[in-house]
Design a protein that fits this description.
This protein is an all-alpha fold. The chain has 2 helices and no strands. It is elongated, with a radius of gyration of 17 Å. Bound molecules: zinc ion (ZN). The site of zinc ion has 7 residues, from loops.
Length: about 70
């Protein structure tokens, strides 16, 4: 057995947990009058232009909140 494999697995587990903890719940997000994905102006109470923007934003959150 390689101890390094154990360490890497534990590290990956911790990272997954940290990402899960950091990911905001969409329904808890405040509507800020701008699309969270592309910063376009949206009506009050709306957080994304459309479902495409929401999906794209969620994918970005899942990747750690950074643009690729
Ligand atoms: Zn948008």
């Amino acid at each position: 057995m390689d101890e390094g494999d154990y360490a890497a697995a534990a590290e990956q587990r911790d990272r997954d947990r940290a990402i899960a903890a950091r990911k905001p719940e969409p329904q808890l997000l405040a509507a800020i009058g701008e699309c969270y994905n592309c910063s376009a102006i949206v009506p009050p109470g709306v957080r994304w232009c459309d479902s495409d923007c929401r999906t794209e934003w969620e994918h970005r959150q899942a990747r750690g909140g950074r643009c690729a």
